[in-house]
Amino acid sequence: MLVLSGLFVSGSEILIPKMIQHFIDVIYPAKDYTAFGYLLLAIAGLCVVMFVAAMAQNTLQRVIREKAARDLQVAVFQKLRKLGFSYYERHPVGETLSFLNTEVAAIQEIYRQYLPGIIQDAIFAVVAVSILFTIDVKLTLLLIPCFLLYYLVGPYYEKKAAKVGKMTADNRVQFNKQIYESISALPEFRAYGRESWDLQRVLERLNLLVKNNLRVILYAYLRGTVRRLCTYSGAIAVFLYGAYLIKHDQLSVGGFVAFTILYFFAIFKMTVVITNLTEQRLLMFQGEILYHFMHQKPDVQEVPQPVLAEIRGRIEFNEVHFGYPSRPDVIRGFTLDIRAGEKIALVGTSGNGKSTILKLAARFYDPLSGEIKLDGVPLNQLALEQIHDAMGYVFQETYLFGTTVRDNIRFGRPDASDEQLYAAAEAAYAHEFILQLPEGYETIVGERGVKLSGGQKQRISLARLFLKNPAIVLLDEATSALDNQSERKVQLALDHLLKNRTTITVAHRLSTIRKADRIIVMDQGCIAEAGTYDALMAMQGLFYRLSEGLELAGEEEEVS
Question: Which Pfam families did the record assign (predicted)?
Fold first, then answer.
């Protein structure tokens, strides 16, 4: 439909020169005013057709553009959700955001302008040249060298422009990444007095981007200059040889006028086609970046359907090995059978893989080797949605959305009633401080909860957990930001929540560790000791030394 409406516009434009020729050669010499009136009516009708077709074309272009952009953005966002956490460790957030903005906008521009325009204008140019042959073959043959030179002069400059265009696309991704980093790390830049240094980095990247853009513009200017010379040369040839043909009665004045108009029409459409092809080629470099991104395989492959009717909570680690690109041996031969309802505490010095065990249990990653089972079924045979629905995860760093307190707590269970939400907040000892906020539960917490203290954010995170009421609970330093009095209160509530629930806790406070059914002491990615608090203290081994004063806090920096 889009191409059809474009053809109506082009067809109407092509007919007008022939009508002018008919007026000059037939109607005017005969003084046929009736035919002149009909001709005016025909031209007016063509103008109406052109107007309606142009409106339809523009409307369809906008609709196609917006739908294509929406579908592509949804596809990119869904792809981002499916990619494993290791992808985000390798690629900065600014680079990832570029896929949703710059690269999608490039594809959107192709749909909006270049793709339909190229088809329509190419057809117009071919038809126009064909009509030139019907007016005068010799005059048209004279223009063939100009047409050929016009088409052939571009590849040299386009090749150079394409090379720089690819560099520009890569530079734009890097620039977006750097801008995001500059905004995210603004407190650090100010604290260390490095704002000028950061500005210099951004300016260097921006200058490189501008430099490459100017090179593309230069090549486009040189290409355009040569093509204008071809156009003017052809026009001079048409006027000189056309005058000769008219003088010797081999071409009518009307035919000469129609020929000249169609020649400039054809040259103009060729210019548009070639320019659009060049611009589209430059945009396709950004499309190529997006293409490679969309064809990346997720690290964690999901099965279409779960195989468990109900999750009870037994978790088995069998000879699990795992590592990150920069740290290949975080977990080495980890074997542990956690009974349903059992409470496990993971302890050890920083960087020994405690938080990684939680992420593997939640299948944020798949192990490099070995196997993890849930209720006897390998995790990779369960739907991720079922795994995550059954688990409640409280991270070291609480993430709050820039909306209300109520919405942040309800995130744990969207269908919960207000009464259930308030009960969860009270259980997490958050209800009292929430009521003291300016708007209570309707208070906007700001981006990432910037308006709240660390302890308040952590209590809201725990309220989410209480509201979700999961079968399996994963706690990564869940009370580290609380003062001793608040922690004692929250710990009492946690004791009630965690009763008969499988729980894996990463903790450094002995008050939390003592309550575990088993304590797993990790060292260099392996289980060094395991047992109850009393048994481990009696052994006077690694746990005993840690409890005597070594730091039990922290986690591997790469994933915290």
Answer: ABC_membrane, ABC_tran
